């Protein structure tokens, strides 16, 4: 059970922002596990990613608490791991949903931002430089595939997709890097992926 955070606690430092984004991704990953159409390989990848995130979550939340000057109940990671191990996914999603409410990802500077056309053009250049090699024609026969970002942005809420960008490139040890983009660039990339179907279409605009 998660204690409510006082409404006056609205500052979002880097640890609080990171905690909120991480919980949003954990919730999104768990909701994906509830999808019966996933391959066994993709299910294994999602479960492994959740377990990996859980290892650092208590420390991240403590740092967020220190930053905000307020605290919520520390999650029982052992219970969360048990829920995952026993495939009690609806309960697991509820746990992450409660935590996400206590440590919200606000997406300040990313969500609800008006992005002018010139920034979307710059986002296309960023995509072609940093993202297209893995994401335009992804190899999906792996546990942690790099899905097409144009499709992923439309399939997920803006908040979840932005949280994935904030937490960094998600993948194996060779790609587990912090995201190199600024908030302004992430907002522009989100606008690009939301409005275009592919890199080729975006280039024709």
Topology (SSEs and partners):
Blueprint (H helix, E strand, L loop, with lengths): L13 H20 L6 H29 L8 H9 L3 H14 L14 H19 L13 H7 L2 H10 L15 H13 L3 H5 L2
Summarize it.
The chain has 205 residues and is mainly α. Helices cover 61% and strands 0% of the residues.
Supply Rg: 17 Å
The helix/strand class is mainly alpha
Written as H for each helix and E for each strand, in order along the chain, the element string is HHHHHHHHH
Query: How many domain regions?
Result: 2
- Span between N and C termini? 50 Å
Largest sheet: none
| Count of runs of 4 or more consecutive helical residues | 9
Number of strands: 0
Report the sheet-strand fraction. Answer: under 5%
* Low-pLDDT stretches: 1-11, 171-175
Task: Average the pLDDT over all residues and give the rounded result.
Answer: 87
Bulk shape: globular
What's the helical proportion of residues?
55-70%
């Amino acid at each position: 059970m998660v204690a409510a955070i006082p409404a006056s606690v609205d500052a979002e430092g880097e640890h609080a922002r990171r905690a909120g984004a991480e919980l949003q991704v954990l919730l999104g990953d768990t909701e994906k596990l509830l999808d019966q159409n996933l391959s066994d390989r993709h299910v294994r990848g999602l479960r492994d990613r959740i377990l990996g995130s859980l290892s650092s979550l208590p420390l991240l939340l403590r740092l967020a608490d220190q930053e905000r000057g307020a605290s919520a109940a520390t999650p029982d990671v052992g219970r969360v791991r048990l829920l995952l191990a026993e495939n009690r996914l609806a309960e697991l999603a509820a746990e992450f949903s409660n935590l996400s409410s206590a440590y919200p990802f606000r997406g300040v500077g990313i969500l609800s931002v008006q992005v002018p056309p010139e920034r979307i053009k710059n986002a296309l250049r960023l995509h072609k430089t940093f993202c297209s090699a893995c994401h335009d024609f992804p190899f999906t026969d792996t546990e942690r595939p790099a899905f097409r970002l144009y499709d992923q942005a439309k399939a997920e809420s803006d908040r979840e997709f932005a949280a994935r960008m904030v937490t960094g490139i998600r993948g194996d040890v060779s790609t587990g890097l912090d995201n190199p983009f600024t908030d302004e660039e992430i907002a522009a990339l989100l606008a690009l992926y939301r409005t275009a179907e592919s890199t080729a279409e975006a280039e024709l605009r």
